[in-house]
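ok trying again, last paste got cut off:
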Amino acid sequence: MKDLAFIFDFTNNDQFNEKIKKARDIGIRTIAFPDNNNDIKNIASQYHLNLVEHEASPELSADWLKKLIQAKQNKKALRVSVDLDNQYLSDINQWMHWYGHAINESVPSDLVASQGVTFENFIASYQKYLFINNKDETQVTISGLEVAPERVELIKNRDDLPFEFENGSLKITIPATDNWQAVRLQAHRPEDDLTDTQF
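nice, full thing came through this time. structure:
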């Protein structure tokens, strides 16, 4: 689903103000309550969150990140039932702080990676992403690119990664991680070709 990683189905309407703020702070863009009353609609609108009809969703669990990547591969958001005391909210908050922009705007890519999952930004198609969960330093080969990227970087710290490109094959060595991380493949940006207009 474009422009969407999660849908939070809050379990009840208690503390709805705090719940809406928490969702906004984490980077969640779509929420639902059992009763989407006018007060909730007004506050959600103030925080620019989408409000949808509530569903009986699976509870947010320890494997949320694996399920999120799988959902995005299927062009869907991960829809979960959640409350303020859920122990995984802090983990989501941290991960979304690093990768929220990339995962929210990702759609499946035609690129093929020897390890991990490839996406592209549906707004800026010159940005491709590799999401990978590698416990050891890993060399990944990606095929399907017509030209070499201008830059390859770890999104978390914006660290440049050296790469090799030959005959449509991109090779990157990716540092080890303790969870899913994302690499950005930055192609030439059309806006870089714009020149100042003189009046």
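cool. Residues 137 and 175 are 5 Å apart (CA to CA). DSSP finds four helices and 14 strands in the chain.
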